[in-house]
Amino acid sequence: MASSNPRKRPTSTQISTKSSSSPKENIIINNNNTSSDSPIASPKWGLLFKLSLFSIPPYFYLLFYHYPIEQELRRSILINAAMSLVGFFLTVKLIPVASRYVLKRNLFGYDINKKDTPMGSVKVPESLGIVVGIVFLVVAILFQYFNFTEDSNWLVEYNAALACICFMMLLGFVDDVLDVPWRVKLLLPSIAALPLLMAYAGHTTIVIPKPLVPHIGVEVLDLGCLYKLYMGLLAVFCTNSINIHAGLNGLEVGQTVVIASAILIHNIMQIGASTDPEYKQAHAFSVYLTQPLLATSLALLSYNWYPSSVFVGDTFTYFAGMTMAVIGILGHFSETLLIFFLPQVLNFLLSLPQLSGYIPCPRHRLPKFDPKTGLLTGTNDGTLVNLSLRILGRKSEKALCIYLLGFQALACCFCFLLRHILAGWYK
């Protein structure tokens, strides 16, 4: 992506496109006669109401009635939820403001999946994930005042987690602006995860599945430095897997909302079912980061759902992936997190031949759009989006996104079912 030199104002138009699977062309246009576009569309409140009606009642039922959660812990969760709600409304308010600024700086994209239609020529503000990340960090930092004391054992790891998330968000914004090559993108999460890896003081052991104990000879295995290597690799996978499972309005944010909702329910279930204070605190730690992530992501989804008024950019995908990786690592449920990420694992395996260079990888691994019918047709590129179209047939962008998010929800339900079936036998 080209950008203007601050010491020399270019007089010609500079355009570059970004190699990714996102449904847009990232464009920076630098000239002397730039004006901001019209304001973006209003948030889709109807969508948010339906999602809230579907997800909030079960969550509060588990929190208040189903499990006997300690009053002090419940109070901390509710304070965090209230602050997250404030963060939601703040994000809804700030996104239009930030959109005007990025349009003034000519950071916008054209929606490729609407090419040759009137909507395909609309300038869509790019990299609005930066608003979500900033509001999330403000909420998470301020929450420390209500929950952590100066001598809290969790304070160091909590701040290290926030440092990783902030680092990854800024690297994602740099990627949006500079168009970082794929080989460099794979290294960015490794760099961003360093604060957490250096500050991590928890256990480095894993519980051996019961069927394997007779063969290995121990029930608990200490991995030492290998455990931290695993943590780093998990951060790299989660961050990049959200980034490459893209290509449709609402898909990047939608999958984040689905996974974050599953993480919240999982944490409340584990807190309610456990009697170990440290185990409860680990899952409460996850709740404190997941609630603001879910709230701010829902605010972004209200603008990014089809037809999208804003693009989230790599800023959001990197931020969301790193946040969920940190949540899984410090909550000690990385195996469960990987099952929640089952569609992303499948998409990664489908993408591996092209990402490794074994099969030629085009600039945009997107389905073909027919402007006459408004339907998408799957190509032979190795993505879950194209595979779904090849199996299901031609679909509209909105319908396909709903199918993929439904598959994401089914993967999360499968994880809960699997944990229930294997409880007491596997571990």
From TrEMBL:
Class of the enzyme per the UniProt entry, highest EC level: transferase
Gene Ontology molecular functions: glycosyltransferase activity; metal ion binding; UDP-N-acetylglucosamine-dolichyl-phosphate N-acetylglucosaminephosphotransferase activity
UniProt key word Membrane: yes
Spans annotated as Disordered: 1-33
Segments crossing the lipid bilayer: 45-65, 77-98, 128-148, 155-174, 186-208, 229-248, 254-273, 285-306, 318-342, 400-422
Chief localisation class: endoplasmic reticulum
Record's compositionally biased regions (Basic residues): 1-10
GO CC annotation: endoplasmic reticulum membrane
Enzyme Commission (EC) number: 2.7.8.15
Pathway annotation: Protein modification; protein glycosylation
Cofactor: Mg(2+)
CDD domains named in the record: GT_GPT_euk
Entry keyword set: Endoplasmic reticulum, Glycosyltransferase, Magnesium, Membrane, Metal-binding, Transferase, Transmembrane, Transmembrane helix
PANTHER family: UDP-N-ACETYLGLUCOSAMINE--DOLICHYL-PHOSPHATE N-ACETYLGLUCOSAMINEPHOSPHOTRANSFERASE
Name under which the protein is recorded: UDP-N-acetylglucosamine--dolichyl-phosphate N-acetylglucosaminephosphotransferase
Organism annotation: Lupinus angustifolius
